[in-house]
Amino acid sequence: MVQRVTYRRRNPYNTRSNKIKVVKTPGGVLRAQHTKKLATRPKCGDTGVPLQGISTLRPRQYATISKTKKTVSRAYGGVLCANAVKERIVRAFLIEEQKIVKKLVKEQTESAKQTGNKKSKNNKKN
């Protein structure tokens, strides 16, 4: 005969929060053992890679642990991975360099136009 197992809590449905594992007790009886939801590691906002150095907990438990276990001592620590931060720094640097180059090119073209205008005026007079 097959031994049946019933839920031990009030919720009688097979939901995500009401998962059980069937366990045989020392007395030989099968009992339902409620399992907790698995915790997922926090992910990087840009790359989606799990963050290193941060505790893996359920969301509510982050309120009770210390700040050193929730972050990494770096810019965007606990939000972005090291590679994402590095990429952002490099991208910002290159954008600034590009702005400087554009400004220089614009100044050179304007100075060339001004010298060209002076030459054309001199040619018209002659």
If strands are numbered along the chain, what order do they take across the biggest sheet?
Answer: 1-2
**Based on DSSP secondary structure assignment, what is the total number of beta strands?**
2
Distance between the termini: 118 Å
Number of domains: 2
Shape: rod-shaped
Residue windows where pLDDT falls under 50 for at least 5 positions: none
* Helical coverage, percent range: 25-40%
- In sequence order, what are the helices and strands, one letter per element? EEH
Determine the structural class based on helices, strands and strand pairing.
mainly alpha
Taking the sheet with the most strands, its summary is:
2 strands, antiparallel
Proportion of strand residues: 5-15%
InterPro entries: Ribosomal_eL34, Ribosomal_eL34_C_sf, Ribosomal_eL34_CS
GO molecular function: structural constituent of ribosome
Protein name: LALA0S01e02168g1_1
Keywords: Ribonucleoprotein, Ribosomal protein
Task: Describe this entry's structure for a reader.
By secondary structure, the chain is mainly α. It has 2 domains: 1-37, no CATH class; 38-118, no CATH class. 35% of the residues lie in helices and 8% in strands. It is built from 1 helix and 2 strands. It has one helix at residues 82-125; strands at residues 20-24, 30-34. Strand 1 and strand 2 (30-34) form a beta hairpin. The protein starts with 19 loop residues before the first strand and ends with a helix. This is LALA0S01e02168g1_1. Residues 116-126 have a biased composition (Basic residues). It comes from Lachancea lanzarotensis. Keywords: Ribonucleoprotein, Ribosomal protein.
